[in-house]
Design a protein that fits this description.
The protein has 4 helices and 3 strands. A 3-stranded mixed sheet has the order 2-1-3. Strand 1 and strand 2 form a beta hairpin. The chain is globular and about 35 Å long. About 20% of the residues have low confidence.
Length: about 120
């Protein structure tokens, strides 16, 4: 996991930006033009459709994100080049992300991990 997190710090992909947030909080920017990743954020690509999300780096230390990173390493290996891919559906990732960003504590990380498992 430390290898992945170190590598994320160096990722500077400036592909089409998709928001890591669908509920209006300022976690990322939805853009129709090329834009660099804001400081304190990291781009991830989710699902088979490779939808791009820009996620706050502080979320990477959450247990649910550590589980997603572990699954990414298992699925694609530590040596994958280029972008960081997350092996779950966009729908599930968006739900998990929205839950984390809401800050209301309605769902624990364990609940979110079980939610990911149900979709696998």
């Amino acid at each position: 996991m430390k290898q992945i997190i170190r590598r994320l710090a160096r990722v500077g992909d400036s592909s089409q930006c998709r928001s890591a947030n669908t509920n209006g909080k300022n976690s990322g920017l939805r853009q129709s033009h090329v834009r660099e990743v804001p400081e304190g954020h990291v781009p991830v690509y989710v699902g088979e459709e490779m939808e791009r999300f820009v996620v706050r780096t502080e979320l990477l230390s959450r247990p649910v994100f550590l589980e997603l990173l572990r699954r990414s390493a298992h699925e694609y290996g530590y040596e994958q080049r280029g972008v960081l891919r997350i092996p779950c559906t966009v729908r599930v990732f968006s739900t998990v992300l929205d839950s984390l960003l809401s800050g209301d504590g309605a769902h624990s990380d364990a609940d979110l991990i079980r939610y990911i498992d149900c979709d696998a």
